[in-house]
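User: Hey, quick favor. My workstation is busy. Could you predict this chain's structure for me?
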Amino acid sequence: MDDEAATHALIVFGLSLLAGPAIGGLVGWLKTFFWGVGVGALLIGCAGLYGAATVGWHRCQSIAGTVSVQGSLVEIVEERGKDSNGRTTTSRAPIVEYTASDGQKRRVKGLGGGLSGKEWGDAVEVRYSKADPTQALVADFQNMWGIVWGLGIFGGFPTMFGLFFTGMAIKEGRHQDGRRVVREPTPAQQRWRTRGTVVANVVFLAGFALVFFYPDPNPMKQFGAGFMTIGAGALLHFVVQSLPPAMEFEFRSILVIVGLGFLAFGYGAWMMA
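Assistant: No problem, here it is.
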């Protein structure tokens, strides 16, 4: 389902990986390094976000015309392929059997990550098309939204870095009449900043603890909980550093990029567990 939209999105994103560095390098040569990196990263990021939005829209449209049914895991097949270095790789793909409204039993192959903890005979949700019951997909996060999440990640990060370097380029191009006046925090502001930093550090360190000690044997749950908590800690640091007198925005924005990155990867790991 939505194979055509996914293929189109991946082609656009793949082309951006070639066009982005080339156009960015040309812009950097004509203007400045910051402009080059910013434009190149934005081209890649926008292509990724376009792909995520396109596939996400088609997937929502497809799901609207499907019916949910409880299937069961009947087989796990090994598939062999080759990586970019020509080495043989092996992956495991689950086969799920489901019964459509016409009473016929059919099978659909899914991606292995989200069903790695399943055993033969375990219940697995499947969604099939009402118009064509042969069109179906396993209804877990990886199979339904994995490509949207992946393109969103690979689009969101270059976009954030592109905005960061573009902002640096704009700031670099401005003529400064004098140095930036740095105001010292008042005693009250210093107390709030100190307290906020302590809270953010506790949350940040709690995230690392959850990676190892989260009370769930599933490692994806552990990484998901830990990474999302680390991301929350980084965003709390951004809030604290935004208290007046605030740290310069380009330095604070790094905390936002780190925080959102950990939140995104953590959420994906949690949902695929």
